[in-house]
Design a protein that fits this description.
By secondary structure, chain A is mainly alpha-helical. Chain A is 68% helix and 0% strand. By secondary structure, chain B is α+β, with helices and mostly antiparallel strands. Chain B contains eleven helices and 18 strands. The chains are: A mainly alpha (184), B alpha+beta (512).
Chain lengths: 184, 512
Amino acid sequence: MEDKEIISLYQRRKEAAIEETEKKFGKLLKHMAMSILRNYQEAEECVNTTYLSTWNTIPPKDPQSLVGYLGKILRNVAIDTYRKGQAKKRSAMEELPFSELEECIPERVDKVCEDKGEISKAINNFLRTLDTPSQQLFVRRYWYLDSIQALAATFNISETNAKQKLFKLRNSLKRYLEEEGIFI
Amino acid sequence: MSNEKKEFLFDAITDIEDDLIEKAYKVSLEASSRKRSFRKKWIFILAATLILGALSVVAAEYSSGTGLLSSYLEVDKSGEVIVEDMKSNINKTAVKDDIEISIINSVADSNNLYLTLSVTFPEGTDMSKAFYFYDIELIYPNGFVNEYQGMNYNLLEDDNTEDNRLYYMLTTRFEDRLPKEKLRLRLRELIYQDTKENIKVGDEIIVSKVGFKQYTKVMNSRAMINEYWDSFYAVVAADETWTFDFNLHYLDHTRAYSTAIAFSTPYNEYNISEVIINPLSISIKGYSSEHNYSFEEGTLAEAIILKDGTRIDLDNQREMVTVYDDIHLSGSFNKVIAPEAVAAVVIYGNEYPIERFKPMTSAVDEKSFLDINVFTSFLTMSYILLYSILSFRSNSTDMPGMLTLIFSFKGNSCNKILRDRKAVDIEKYKLKTFKKNKPYNIKNFTKERKKKLWALIICRIVSIVGLIFLMVMLFINIRIATKLGLIYTTLVLIDIILLVKLLYLDIQAKNI
């Protein structure tokens, strides 16, 4: 089913909307949740919360991209769950792909950007400077949280090649943020 | 760096704009479609868009199998020999609408097929366009169409940029055994892609002339526009079908092993029962105990380790799970390997040495072939001796019938082994290979093999002595002696031919 048709089901308050969402995006959302939480049960809860939240917010919202909308809700729910569960010493943030993010972050003690929106804008602008495959690679890795193997398969390149491209992208992002004067 | 900062960046990345997210989603859809559907429209265009961006290939020697493969696979010296075995020159050409397409050659093993194509365009063609086929079908003699196996479609970079010729390589991997028989390749509609901003369903696209017969195709597939690209459309450059019939040949280097590997992940428990290694890919079969496969991250089959310690990570992994929880993992190598050079496979981070696996081909069959030979030879010999004695008394003429039965038994038994034998290919036993590998050289025989060979030779000598004895015994009755002697001599000759063939099979089986 097309995304617009699913959104239309939500707008008409048809419960089939959730069923169709799960059918189309369930596996992707579970994968993303698991990548962040490393816990099957919590990932399930996180995905269910995402469905509920989507149900409660459409309408009034009318997302242009359903996958983007679902993914953003899921990432927010998952990171909240992760923060709550930090006492349990889970180490998802120490693992890939999160640990790779370190390389993208320029640091300066005297000048710290605390505006998330500003960084988001900079990242979006950075992505707009890239060619399409590089954009897709970056987003698949750090937004969809795809593994290197999955990226290699998706982009039909070797894993080594995927790692190299990501390494270059992280360095480019870091340089870009530095040039923009954004430090964390 | 603290987790807070990483989380901060994580939050910032969450707000990547929707169109970028959507674009990245589509690339994944495309990849999975490419895997699932061989014939699905547009896959080749999308795949090629990706591949062209990532792939820079120099194809120098298109007529050479090694040159062909080495254009994007590492082929070392041992690999060259294997590639030569896998290669088959096809050289079939079809011309439609002034466009000449040739299949140059194939390189194949039991699970992989590489086909090199050349497409020659008429003079004046705008060669800057990226040309692809709208639909490709590989059809087996039984009518089965290979429509679900993913096929990559690579444009090979050509040193000669002046001519109007492009080289393509079609590559596909078969989950099941690649049939070594007559195949039909059908290429339909040569197209090229173009873009235009804000294209809408139903919009008419005016196509510029590209150098040969011009077609205008209006993009009217709602699914396409919605699912993939908003500003993308295709132009049919030649609305034709090019059909090629060719025989697929390759010498099989496959090694198959039965295993009893058990391992578990946080979500599943797996049992691996079969590992099949060929020069270009590995296939791992088994079953899982749970239904949580979709939660697995990454791929389970990771790499192979060669005997010299080289680790080769698998590319293009595929993982299939049936409703019965059978799993089929597979992946290809970035170089051509000799399957016998593999020391271990790496699955879910653990190394499993091949030596612990049980070969599925040679050992049992080798024994069976020789045992049947020894048994039937003794049977023949015993019967001849027995008959000689009896015939001296009764002049019975039942011997030819009995011998026929014995040979029939031998033939059926051997055929049964051949039928049951997995991953062994009859092509392997071609006389050419036989001569090349010199398997008849007694220096190459193991002790056990030598013993069995001597046993067979003794059997034959005794049989011949038996024949002479028979002839002498029957000399008294010249009519029966002539009749039986001729029949028996013929049968012995057939038997010797069979013996040579079976020994040859046996020796070759050891090398698989």
